[in-house]
Amino acid sequence: xxxxxxxxxxxxxxxxxxxxxxxxxxxxxxxxxxxxxxxxxxxxxxxxxxxxxxxxxxxxxxxxxxxxxxxxxxxxxxxxxxxxxxxxxxxxxxxxxxxxxxxxxxxxxxxxxxxxxxxxxxxxxxxxxxxxxxxxxxxxxxxxxxxxxxxxxx
Length: 154
What we know:
Pfam families: ubiquitin. By secondary structure, the protein is of the alpha+beta class. It has helices at residues 22-33, 102-113; strands at residues 2-7, 10-15, 40-43, 66-71, 80-85, 91-96, 120-124, 127-129, 144-149. The protein folds into two domains: 2-71, Phosphatidylinositol 3-kinase Catalytic Subunit, Chain A, domain 1 (Ubiquitin-like (UB roll)); 80-149, Ubiquitin-like (UB roll) (Roll). The radius of gyration is 24 Å and the shape is rod-shaped. The model has no long low-confidence stretch (mean pLDDT 91).
């Protein structure tokens, strides 16, 4: 059966099977319109489907039905946990997002550990983390970041 997908004033026809799931409909929309299924919000005549595993016929779609497609922002990535080991060997756990900057992380460490950000040397996988984002340094879930202190003197 053919259904019409309406998106931003455009209409696109998709051929689907009534037993196709809402999830597989989203995949077909992705293939035709290049819209990530996680960002798709569908609106059928009788409301928003909230179960991607149900067949589209469950929601009353039939030949000639119209489906409105709204593209939403992707959900933010879930926080991950990393461990910070200080110069005394004590570990602390931090929840971070991969898009977090090294500067922001240093400021959070300063608030919790009491070490000024300017005195921190953060090391991950043998590389000093100076600028950019944590993900630029291959920080992953359960990574350990080592903190040493800048040496003073001359």
